[in-house]
Amino acid sequence: MDLKTAAKEKLDSVRARIIELSHKIHSHPETGFKETQASAWISEFLSAEGFRVENGICELPTAFMARSGSGPLHVAICAEYDALPEIGHACGHNIIAAAAAGAGIAAAWIADEAGLTVSVIGTPAEESGNAGGKILMLERGAFSDVHAAMMVHPAPFDSLKPGIIAASMFEVRYAGREAHASAYPERGINAADALTVAQTAIGLLRQHILPTDRIHGITVHGGDAPNIIPARTKARYIVRSRTLAELEKLRPRVYRCFEAGALATGSTMEIVGGDRPYSEMKHDPDICAAFKRNMDALGRAFPDVDMSASGFSASTDMGNVSQAVPSIHPMIGIDSYPAVNHQREFAAKCASDPADRAVYEGALAMAWTAIDCAADPALRDRLLSKK
Q1: Mean pLDDT across the stretch 134-150?
Q2: Domain with residues 166-273, CATH architecture
């Protein structure tokens, strides 16, 4: 029996359980760095399948490393499992986690024969937008001996090379002075006005930025009562550009808009975060090609198109991994359109029959791609030479 057939038979034997895992995580959404249940469920599943599991790695309680095999080529499969506030698994990280577990189990079954070491790495808080779990884990050595990394992400459509751009998320805090809004308004310093000035300045700035740049945010706190001059306001913003280099040019211009609000109103301003931005994704062409061949074999015709050219853009800390380790991050369709990521309707689709199919096919294609990485002499040698 060839290695891919053996891996498929192993995955088939746990197929019902990985679907159950996906649905269980979907039904119990947990936000970043609080994914206690999801992390434990995945770890326990992998441990029962013979993985050596270490929990709480890299000083992150909900991160884990599950490893199997002893071959020279170390392939890591990244599991994300954090949900979004209020709308739950509207980005489908339950699918990512279950597919990663399934791929790891299938690849581990033939790891030594294939010449692989297989790790499933539990990476919390991808949705945080700054200092995400993978960034902290990179800094703390979780990927130091990894030769290739991969994951799949649900979307309305299949995409081999989605447009993944750089992003920086930060919080802006203004401090002014309270006063009675009717009797003594002249005694107050309006921190909400500072935010209004900043938002107006950002709106005007948009004429002068690249069409690929993005600036968007929310007001987290705008005051306490309409008859009190707001002394404190808080906003959370994300700034995105095609690359980290372009982001570093855009971000100071956006910061100056927030400084303008403070200057105009006499408020003081503080920016918190934004210090560990997400990088653009570097799609490894050879691993992408192997993944596409495997998806084609499963009946999914993945278009080999760079989605960034279509205007699609998103950000992930997997981009940071890809700058250090040859990586892929394909999007796998779940037949959800017109429901799209970060909508409640998309969350509902992430526990549907097409989503379950995506879990299985994503897991199998990743397992087969890991086998290809080890079996192709030129690719294997290139990956081994990276460390």
Answers
A1: 98
A2: 2-Layer Sandwich (3.30)
pLDDT in tens, 53-77: 999 999 999 999 999 999 999 999 9
**CATH 3.40.630.10 spans which residues of the chain?**
3-164+281-385
Q: If you search the block for the tokens 């300045």, which residue do you land on?
A: 201
Name, in order, each residue with C-beta under 8 angstroms of 364's C-beta and a sequence gap of 6 or more: 7, 8, 11, 102, 103, 106, 294, 298
In the chain, the DSSP E strands lie at 52-55, 64-69, 73-79, 116-122, 148-150, 153-155, 166-175, 214-221, 232-241, 268-273, 327-328, 331-333
Task: Give dist(CA 332, CA 159) in Å, integer.
Answer: 7
Structure confidence by residue, pLDDT tens digits, 9-18? 999 999 999 9
Could you check whether the bond before residue 338 is cis, i.e. omega within 30 degrees of 0? yes
What does the angle CA 307 – CA 313 – CA 315 come to, to the nearest 5 degrees?
120
Half-sphere exposure of 65 (CA within 13 A, CB side): 21
Residues of the chain within CATH 3.30.70.360 domain(s) are 166-273
Domain 3-164+281-385 falls under CATH 3.40.390.30: no
Structure tokens, 30: 């947990």
In three-state secondary structure terms, 105 is helix
Residue 306 has pLDDT above 80, yes or no: no
Cα 343 to Cα 323: distance, rounded to the nearest angstrom: 30
